[in-house]
Amino acid sequence: MQYDVTVIGSGPGGYVAAIRCAQLGMRTAIVERYPVMGGTCLNVGCIPSKALLDSSEHFHNAKHRFDAHGINLTGLKINMPQMIQRKNNVVLENNKGVEFLMKKNKIDVYHGHGSFVNKNKIRIAREDGSALEIDTTKTIIATGSKPIVPAGFNYDKKRIITSTEALNIDRVPGSMLIIGGGVIGLELGSVYARLGAQITVVEYLDRILPTMDADCSRELLKSLKLLGMQFHMRHAVTEVKPSKTKVKVVAQSRDDAAKILNFEVDYCLIAIGRRPYTDRLGLENIGLSTDEKGRIPVNEHLETSAPGIYAIGDVIRGAMLAHKAEEEGVFAAEVLAGQKPHIHYHLIPGVVYTWPEVAAVGYTEEELKEKGVPFKSGKFPFRALGRARASMDLDGMVKVIAHKDTDEILGVHIVGARAADMIAEGVALMEFRASAEDAARMSHAHPTYTEALKEAALAATANRPIHV
């Protein structure tokens, strides 16, 4: 079978790339090694984790906050199998949705492990041991990433787990230790903390969310501690040893080698990052190799050094984000069609789906100081926001950073209810190079959470917020 383009991988980057290629008139195939479509994000990442985050937040509110709303409950309990089943149903519906989109756009779907025979021929090895080959003019690699699991951590998928297994625990654990204070660890840790587990986070660096603005890290840390989560910063895990029902974890202080922490927990979740997944892809058959981090090098058009072979998403440079992969999928398809698309990487937002949520776009204060860029900033606390008081979501703040001389907005950082949705306003403002004064002059409906962004912009312009 001859195709204009073949996409290897059906995650958010891959299936979006395939759809855009088909829309642009290309005969398109997509290869997915698993029986279902959607990749990590849909099956064991973004979607199922958000389903559990929502379920656990409902339980936590029912247990701790409903009384204040005049809602009295008795006999409240967790039905963990039902919670997991609901999560699985959410995933299944999304699987069906992607399959429908493939049919709608007349994209041929092949299930099996795809690898390069040469740059114009893809071999697809099926689970039953059979294989077939398809011919393609162009190829887009969108094979995503896998959790980083050091051999010394004794990963067994039972007591020592990654995010994949953490999404399917069938009863609430008494305790869980999380190695890593990044996005994945904090999201899944907050799920089980809300359900009643004792969560301990061991982080190698000096703060959680080390790539985000320090004010966001501090604000979220306060909220998670109130949830009962415990944190040990600047500690290195030196031993992880499972037994049948427990895990022994040893951590050493980076500041005092004599300070050793010993833990015995029900589960140990390894959440120290992800690696590009290019295993058995046959890159050597098309003259490609990966860099020191396992990524496939690409040029400004997302084309590899093998002509006609493109790569997107987690297998290339940049943040490992589903929406970044989607943008690159569209970009690659439009390049193949001879168009001249553009991605403003600096304005791709990052989100942490804890509660309160964390969302950010643009520069942090730390980055601007390092670059020597003069700036000013304004902050507004959710506690002073009418909408937040009405919903009892008082934790968090909005921070707007603007250029000291031109007033152009350089960064927006939010911790609070619906931050994941609010950040889109910051992205839009920055895409059009708006000033803090522009944001402050825009009318925001009252009462809404986004009024906090207006107030933060007022604070950044001339320290003139109205409601604080």
From the spread of the alpha carbons, the general shape counts as: globular
> Helical residue percent?
25-40%
The overall average pLDDT, rounded, is 97
- CA radius of gyration is 24 Å
- CATH superfamily membership of the largest domain: FAD/NAD(P)-binding domain
Number of strands: 22
**Beta-strand residue percentage:** 25-35%
CATH topology of the largest domain: FAD/NAD(P)-binding domain
List segments where confidence is low: pLDDT < 50 over at least 5 consecutive residues.
Answer: none
CATH architecture of the largest domain: 3-Layer(bba) Sandwich
Classified by CATH, the class of the largest domain is Alpha Beta
What would you say about this model in short?
By secondary structure, this protein is of the alpha/beta class.
